[in-house]
Write a sequence for this structure.
């Protein structure tokens, strides 16, 4: 079915299938917008939790350089998604540092880590947002549970599916369709009908 050029189809991700339109969640916009939010709130000691190394190398390091910010390598933490509760322990370890040198901003770049990172913050006694601001990756309309007031930034599944269907319908009508679709990251206040 994937070899039939007449069948309109979209792969969610980048360059997954030949002759297939790709829809890409714009992870670069997530990093850029998250990094813009924290320094605006005077958060310059930033830690980074992610479900792997990919976003760090491709997006985080260039965005940090552009803003003349730095995140110490020991605070850029890739975590395996086979054991997301490790995020809680890592956060507790980071928050055990003296208040003057520990992170005052935290980026959680994978929604699978959010709940566990929140548990680690609760256990550490750090007050969010007084002591620490957290930008947490989110997929709308069902954000990962968190008992703390995180800044939520992510992608709307409804927007993704609507854009996919619009392109498929246009192709069925014989209309031109874009080669790729990029969905930007949005903050919670920018999402309609959360």
């Amino acid at each position: 079915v994937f070899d039939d050029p007449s069948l309109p189809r979209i792969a969610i991700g980048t360059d997954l299938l030949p002759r297939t339109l790709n829809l890409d969640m714009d992870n670069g916009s997530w990093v850029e917008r998250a990094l813009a939010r924290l320094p605006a709130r005077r958060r310059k000691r930033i830690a980074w939790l992610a479900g792997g190394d990919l976003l760090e190398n491709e997006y985080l390091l260039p965005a940090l350089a552009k803003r003349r910010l730095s995140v110490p390598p020991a605070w850029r933490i890739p975590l395996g998604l086979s054991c997301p509760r490790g995020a809680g322990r890592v956060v507790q370890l980071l928050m055990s540092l003296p208040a003057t040198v520990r992170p005052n901003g935290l980026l959680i770049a994978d929604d699978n880590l959010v709940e566990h990172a929140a548990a680690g913050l609760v256990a550490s006694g750090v007050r969010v947002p007084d002591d620490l601001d957290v930008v947490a990756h989110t997929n709308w309309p069902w954000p990962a549970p968190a008992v703390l007031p995180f800044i939520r930034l992510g992608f709307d599944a409804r927007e993704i599916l609507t854009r996919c269907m619009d392109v498929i319908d246009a192709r069925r009508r014989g209309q031109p369709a874009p080669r790729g679709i990029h969905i930007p990251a949005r903050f919670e206040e920018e999402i309609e009908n959360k």
